[in-house]
Amino acid sequence: MEKAGDILKRFFQKSNIDFSSNFYSFFRSWSHIAGEDLSAHSDVVDINNNTVIVEVDHPGWMQMLQMNQKSLLREIKKMYPELHIKEIRFRLRVKEKEKGREKIRAESQEKRADDLEFKQILERLRALARKPDVDTEHEK
């Protein structure tokens, strides 16, 4: 089976994109650019329209990255001028556990809504069962 890196390398060569090695080098160098602490809690996930997209694992670390945004951008431009990076955007990483919790919460809310509807139907049935039968009273 062919490695993804080999496929991408061929693609970039055929496309005459000469910065491919710098592109991948940039992704690998995030720990050097951001530093050990910040990079331990963040990952470069994309470069889109001259913007670096960085996912962060906690709002506190996102704030730290935002406070260092200008120096990070300066370092990126210095190390990789050929990538023409103009901006860095940070977004909070949604963990799989949190996705699972959100799904459970949504299902639980649906179940409660179904339970409420079912209870309302039962209450109407009970109310109908308590009403005297009109036909039965006329027969007496």
Summarize the structure.
By secondary structure, this protein is α+β, with helices and mostly antiparallel strands.
Report on the structure:
By secondary structure, the chain is an alpha+beta fold. It folds into two domains: 4-92, 2-Layer Sandwich (GMP Synthetase, Chain A, domain 3); 96-139. The protein contains eight helices and three strands, in the order H-H-H-H-E-E-H-H-E-H-H. It has a three-stranded mixed sheet with strand order 1-2-3. A hairpin with a 2-residue loop joins strand 1 (42-48) and strand 2. The model has no long low-confidence stretch (mean pLDDT 81).
H/E element sequence = HHHHEEHHEHH
Domain count: 2
Radius of gyration in whole Å, from Cα?
A: 30 Å
Major β-sheet annotation:
3 strands, mixed
Task: Enumerate the strands of the largest sheet in spatial order, edge to edge or round the barrel.
Answer: 1-2-3
**Strand pairing plus helix content: what structural class?**
alpha+beta
CATH top-level class of the largest domain: Alpha Beta
Distance between the termini: 88 Å
Mean pLDDT comes to 81
Q: Which CATH architecture of the largest domain is right?
A: 2-Layer Sandwich
Name the poorly predicted regions: none
Percentage of residues in strands: 5-15%
In which range does the helix fraction lie? 55-70%
Tally of helical segments = 8
From the spread of the alpha carbons, the general shape counts as elongated
Q: In the CATH scheme, what's the topology name of the largest domain?
A: GMP Synthetase, Chain A, domain 3
Total E-strand runs:
3
